[in-house]
Each structure stands twice: as structure tokens, then as C-alpha cells.
Write a structure and sequence with these properties.
There is one protein chain. With 225 residues, the chain is of the alpha+beta class. It folds into 2 domains: 80 residues, Gyrase A, domain 2; 134 residues, Cyclophilin. The protein contains 5 helices and 13 strands.
């Protein structure tokens, strides 16, 4: 673990060189510890794959004081004490009409589309980071049998709710945007809604499970085609 300056009023704490469930648990534990011990000066905490951005009130403490307090708060950090994230189930309508890359991905993996769907919804995924766009949760790790590289040419428009795979990550697009991930289905759940509290159904450290639904059920839940 190392602490580095990340701006006039910020530090970034590095917990490892690559993503893993263990590193993610460390970050969760650190968030709880820092929130409890630096609440008087804390502005925001932004967790990512293997790091944690700590933004503090520059008018309340200087870098030296905050670094000392961070080191004290993170001493003897026990990742095993981190609270287990919530389990969030997201419905997905899988099909070539909403997942134009489903059949190609299945053929590349020498699987049927049904097998790809079953594999994708058979496990829990950890929310490692939220970025790229508000509500875009990076979930891992995808079973290596259905892992797929990003498209060589990204699409200019990917619809909101598109369920996608890139390498060993999977995600739900929270809004229409460009994107180069492999699209295999669509989710009716809004991944970001600024009018709701909380604005996102998941947070870093949560667990996500996908559940296949039929086309009509997807529409009944508010999905678009």
C-alpha cells in the first residue's frame, strides 16, 4: 500500500498493481476506516480497481496532517473486516435482436447462444469500479469461456441498457453512448437516474447477478427495443 499526492486537496492510495477480489475487499475496508476517522475533513472517496482517491478539505487540514491521519487510519487494515456488498439482481433479455454480438461470440467460443446465456447468468460479479459514464459499473470476472476482446471498430451508438462483455468484464450501458464492447442482451433497470436516491442501483464492492427474462417481461419492466 502506498499513498501519493493526487492534487492540491487529494491523495491516491494504491493497494496493488492489478484487480482482484482481495484488493477490492481491501479498498472497501479502507473506505469504511477513512470515513470513520477523517469525517471532519473528508470531501469525497472515489474507489477504483486497485486504488482509492481521497479528497479532503484543504481549508481544514494540510497535506502533511492528512497523510499522517491516513497512515494511522489504514494501519493494520483488515480486508476480512470489510462489509460484504449487497447482492443486486439485474434482469436481462438476451437475444440477437438486442444483442447483435451474441451469435458471433458464441461461435467464437464454440458454444451455443443458450450456453453463453447460461454461463453469463450463472455467477455473481463484483463491482470493481464505476466510471466512463455515471452508472457504468465494471463487473468481473467473466468466465473465460465467454470472454471476448473489444470490437475492432467501436459502435457510434450503443443503446441504454445494453448488456455487454469486453475481455473478462461485463457491464450494462447506463445511457446511449459510443462503445466497443460485445452486446449480448439488454437490461431494463436504469443504472443511473439523477432523480432517485441513490442514483445508482449498485456501488463498488456490491455483487451483481444477471437473470434471464423473456421479451415481454423485459418490456413490462420498462425496457426499450
Amino acid at each position: 500500500m502506498r499513498i501519493e499526492i493526487a492534487g492540491q486537496n487529494a491523495f491516491i492510495v494504491y493497494f496493488g498493481e492489478q484487480t482482484s477480489a482481495e484488493v477490492s475487499a481491501q479498498i472497501q475496508a479502507a473506505v469504511a476506516r477513512i470515513d470513520a476517522n477523517l469525517s471532519d475533513t473528508l470531501v469525497d472517496l472515489v474507489p477504483s480497481y486497485a486504488s482509492l482517491l481521497v479528497i479532503f478539505d484543504i481549508d481544514g487540514d494540510d497535506h502533511f496532517a492528512v497523510r499522517r491521519r491516513l497512515r494511522a487510519a489504514l494501519a493494520d487494515l483488515d480486508a476480512g473486516a470489510a462489509a460484504e456488498g449487497e447482492l443486486v439482481t439485474l434482469p436481462v433479455y438476451y437475444g440477437s435482436d438486442v444483442g447483435p454480438d451474441l451469435e458471433t461470440l458464441a461461435a467464437r467460443a464454440n458454444l451455443t447462444t443458450r450456453e453463453v446465456i447460461d454461463i453469463h447468468q450463472s455467477q455473481e460479479y463484483r463491482v470493481y469500479a464505476i466510471g466512463f459514464a455515471p452508472g457504468f459499473a465494471y463487473l468481473g470476472e467473466v468466465d473465460e469461456r465467454i470472454a471476448a476482446p473489444r470490437l475492432k471498430t467501436p459502435r457510434q451508438k450503443v443503446p441504454r441498457g445494453a448488456v455487454a462483455i469486453a475481455d473478462r468484464q461485463t457491464a450494462v450501458y447506463p445511457a446511449e453512448s459510443p462503445g466497443g464492447w460485445n452486446l449480448i442482451g439488454r437490461c431494463p433497470t436504469r443504472m443511473f437516474d439523477p432523480q432517485r436516491d441513490p442514483s445508482m442501483p449498485v456501488k463498488v464492492g456490491d455483487r451483481v447477478r444477471f437473470e434471464a427474462v423473456e421479451r415481454q417481461r423485459y418490456l413490462d419492466l420498462g425496457g426499450d427495443l
